[in-house]
Specification:
By secondary structure, this protein is an alpha/beta fold. Helices cover 50% and strands 12% of the residues. It has an eight-stranded parallel β-sheet. A four-stranded parallel β-sheet has the order 6-5-4-7. The chain has a three-stranded antiparallel β-sheet with strand order 1-2-3, with no helix packed on it. Helix 22 runs parallel beside helix 24. It is globular.
Length: 640
C-alpha cells in the first residue's frame, strides 16, 4: 500500500476513535535531526533515534519484525488478560501481539503508553495500525499528562467486560529503548495503572464484613426508609442554582465565616463532620449529608439544640442511632448498591464515592446545582499537621491519617502531604467532576489539587456566582410537600415481609448446597491433595475435577434468584473480586495441571466457607429485620 494511502487509512481510524489525538498528530512533523528512517538488512523499515547527540537504532539491524517476535516469545507468557505496553515505537511489537498472541493468551484489554507523539506519527507512516486503533479493547495513552489516564482506566477500561476480575494477572511488556529514554514517565504510567486498579477494588468494597455491616444496618433502618422521603424528590430542582459543599478540612478555618453570606443565594450542603463547627458559629446549612456505617456518627449531631429547617440527607447503611441523634427532618439517599434494589422502595440512588464529601458533591450534582463550590475539601494535611477544622467533634488532628503519607500537587502548584485515604477520595472527586458537564470550583484555599475543578478563593466564587437570592429552603420544602399524604407504610411493610421470607428460604436452600460441596472438598483435600503435596502421590483427576466442575455450576447459578442477588451481591463483591483475581492467576503460578487443579480445590473450599458464612449471617440479619418490621406493623395497627 502506498505510504499516502497507508497514512490516510491510519489517520481516518485514529480520528474516529481518538479525535483529539488525531488532531495533534495530523500536522506533526518529527524533527529530521532526531529521527531517521533506515532499512534493516532484510529491507524492513527501522528507525534511528537521536539520544544525547548519538543515534541509536530502535530495532534489530538485521530483522526488526523477527527480533520483535523473539522478544515477545522470550517473555514466556501463559495468560495475559491485560497487557500493558510501555512504548510504541513503530508499532511492531503491538501489531505482532494482537495478531499472534492476544487470542491464545486470553487477552481482554491492551493498554499502550507512549510518552512521545513523534513515535505515533512515524508509526502511522510505516505500518497499518487502523484495525488496532479502532479495536474497542485497545486503549492508547500517547503524549499526555499521565495523570489524565487515570479516569479513562477507571471508567472505560477496568469496568468493561469483567476486566476487574483479572487485574492481578496484568502483564507488562516493556520496550527497552523507550523505557531507557524516559524511565520516570513509564514508572508513573505503571503507578497510575496500579492506582486505578486499587481504586476499583476499594469502590467495590474492600471488606466483606464492612459491606455486611452496612446491609445489617439497612435492615434495622427499614422504619426510617419507609417513613421518610427520598432524595429523588429533589432531583433537578436546583437547576442553575449554585451549591456550596462544606467539608471538614483544616482550611475551612479560613473562610467558614463567609458561608452565612450565601444562605439565600446558594444551597449549602455540609458534611456531618462539619455540622457542629458551622452550628457553633450560627451558620445553618440546608442539607447535612451522612454516610459512614461505623459507630460514632451520632456524635456529629448530639447536643445540638435546634434542627429547624435543616435536613439530614442520610444513607441508611449507617447505624440506627445516627438517625435518632439527628432530631430533625430526614431525606433518604440510596447508593447504587444491590442492597437497595432488594428493598423495592425508590428513594433515589446515587453512585457515591468512599467518603461523605463525595456524597455532598453527588447530591449537589443530582439536584442540578451549577456551579458546585467546594470548601473545606483539603484532602491533605495543614502545614502544622492538622487534619480537620476547629471544633470538629473528634478533634482537629486525627493521627490515623498520618500512617500512610505521600506527596501530591497542591492547589498552589506546590507539593503537599496527603494520606493514602485522602488520595483515594480525591480520585473519586475527579471521576465525579468528569461526569459533570457543569462548573466545579475548588475554593478550599489550601489542600490538594482536584483535577477538573477551577481554583479560586471562596470570596471570588461568591462574587462571581452567588449574587442573586434564590431561597433554597423554600425549594426543598415545596419538593417534599405531600410525601406524608402519599405514604402507604402498611403496604410497604407487608411487601417487605414477603420478600424477607422468600429471601431467607432461598438463602437457606443455597447454604445446604454449599455445605454438601464443602464436605466433599474437605474429603478430597484429605484423601487426594495432602498425599499429593506431601509424598507426590498421583491425583485422581476425575475426583478433583468433579469438585471444580460442581463449584463452577454453583458459581453460575447461586445468584439467579433476583432477591438473593440483590441482598447478597454487594456483600459478596469484595471477596468475590479478590477470589476471581487469585483464581484467574493460578495459570500463572502453576504450569503443571495437577498442581493447578489442587490449588483450585483449596480455593473452592475457602470460597464455600466464606460465602456460606456470609449467607448464614445474612439470614440472621433478615430474621432481625423481620421482627422489626412486624413490630412496626403492630404499632401501625394500634395507632389506626
Amino acid at each position: 500500500m502506498p505510504q499516502t494511502a497507508l497514512f490516510a487509512r491510519n489517520m481516518n481510524a485514529l480520528q474516529k476513535r481518538y479525535p483529539r489525538l488525531a488532531e495533534r498528530v495530523k500536522d506533526l512533523r518529527p524533527d529530521a535531526g532526531k529521527y531517521r528512517f533506515v532499512r534493516a538488512r532484510n529491507g524492513q523499515p527501522n528507525l534511528l533515534v537521536a539520544d544525547d547527540h548519538r543515534f541509536q537504532m530502535l530495532y534489530d539491524p538485521e530483522d526488526p519484525w523477527g527480533a520483535s517476535l523473539a522478544h515477545l516469545k522470550a517473555l514466556k507468557m501463559n495468560f495475559v488478560p491485560i497487557a500493558v505496553f510501555l512504548g510504541l515505537g513503530l508499532g511492531y511489537h503491538l501489531h505482532l501481539f494482537t495478531r499472534n498472541f492476544a487470542e491464545r493468551l486470553g487477552t481482554k484489554k491492551i493498554l499502550v503508553f507512549e510518552e512521545n507523539r513523534d513515535f505515533l506519527r512515524l508509526a502511522v507512516e510505516t505500518i497499518d495500525l487502523s484495525e488496532i486503533f479502532l479495536h474497542p479493547d485497545v486503549q492508547f495513552f500517547v503524549g499526555e499528562d499521565i495523570e489524565e489516564a487515570y479516569l479513562t482506566l477507571r471508567q472505560d477500561v477496568v469496568m468493561d467486560k469483567g476486566v476487574f476480575n483479572f487485574m492481578k494477572s496484568t502483564k507488562v511488556i516493556p520496550l527497552a529503548p523507550h523505557v531507557r529514554r524516559n524511565p520516570d514517565y513509564y514508572r508513573r504510567a505503571l503507578d497510575v495503572t496500579k492506582r486505578a486498579f486499587s481504586q476499583t477494588m476499594i469502590m467495590a468494597g474492600n471488606d466483606p464484613i464492612d459491606s455486611f455491616i452496612g446491609m445489617d444496618n439497612l435492615l434495622m433502618n427499614i422504619r426510617h426508609i419507609v417513613n421518610n422521603p427520598g432524595i429523588n424528590r429533589l432531583f433537578g430542582r436546583f437547576q442553575g442554582l449554585p451549591a456550596v459543599t462544606v467539608g471538614a478540612g483544616p482550611s475551612l478555618n479560613k473562610n467558614i465565616h463567609l458561608i452565612q453570606k450565601v444562605r439565600e443565594k446558594a444551597l449549602i450542603i455540609c458534611c456531618d463532620a462539619s455540622f457542629k463547627p458551622l452550628m457553633k458559629r450560627n451558620i445553618r446549612p440546608h442539607l447535612v449529608v451522612s454516610l459512614e456505617r461505623t459507630d460514632g456518627t451520632e456524635y456529629f449531631f448530639d447536643g445540638v439544640p435546634d434542627f429547624e429547617d435543616i435536613y439530614l440527607a442520610i444513607c441508611p447503611l449507617i447505624r440506627p442511632q445516627s438517625f435518632d441523634s439527628f432530631r430533625g427532618e430526614k431525606i433518604i439517599v440510596h447508593r447504587t448498591f444491590s442492597h437497595f434494589n432488594w428493598l423495592h422502595l425508590d428513594k433515589g440512588a446515587l453512585a457515591i464515592g468512599p467518603c461523605v464529601g463525595n456524597m455532598a458533591y453527588k447530591v449537589a450534582h443530582a439536584l442540578g446545582c451549577d456551579p458546585i463550590i467546594m470548601i473545606g475539601q483539603d484532602l491533605a494535611f495543614a502545614a502544622d499537621g492538622d487534619t480537620h477544622v476547629k471544633d470538629m467533634p473528634f478533634g482537629e488532628r486525627d493521627e490515623n491519617y498520618h500512617e500512610k503519607v505521600l506527596e501530591v500537587e497542591g492547589n498552589d502548584g506546590k507539593p503537599i502531604k496527603t494520606s493514602r485515604a485522602w488520595d483515594i477520595f480525591r480520585g473519586s472527586y475527579e471521576e465525579d467532576i468528569r461526569a459533570n458537564s457543569g462548573i466545579t470550583i475548588n475554593a478550599t484555599e489550601g489542600g490538594a489539587r482536584i483535577r477538573g475543578a477551577r481554583i479560586m478563593t471562596f470570596q471570588e466564587a461568591i462574587d462571581g456566582y452567588c449574587r442573586e437570592d434564590r431561597h433554597p429552603l423554600s425549594i426543598i420544602k415545596k419538593a417534599l410537600a405531600g410525601f406524608r399524604d402519599q405514604l402507604n407504610a402498611r403496604e410497604d411493610y407487608e411487601a417487605l415481609l414477603k420478600r424477607i421470607d422468600h429471601t431467607h428460604a432461598a438463602l437457606d436452600a443455597l447454604t445446604v448446597r454449599f455445605q454438601e460441596l464443602l464436605a466433599t472438598a474437605r474429603a478430597v483435600q484429605r484423601d487426594q491433595i495432602v498425599p499429593f503435596i506431601n509424598s507426590g502421590a498421583p491425583l485422581d483427576r476425575k475426583i478433583v475435577d468433579d469438585v471444580i466442575e460442581r463449584f463452577l455450576v454453583i458459581l453460575n447459578e447461586f445468584l439467579r434468584d433476583q432477591d438473593v442477588n440483590d441482598i447478597m451481591l454487594h456483600t459478596l463483591q469484595p471477596h468475590g473480586i479478590w477470589f476471581s483475581n487469585k483464581f484467574n492467576f493460578l495459570p500463572d503460578l502453576y504450569t503443571d495441571g495437577d498442581c493447578r487443579a489442587a490449588a483450585q480445590v483449596l480455593m473452592v473450599r475457602e470460597w464455600l466457607g466464606v460465602t456460606g458464612q456470609l449467607f448464614v449471617s445474612t439470614m440472621e440479619a433478615l430474621a432481625k429485620g423481620r421482627a422489626s418490621v412486624i413490630k412496626d406493623l403492630q404499632e401501625l395497627q394500634s395507632a389506626a
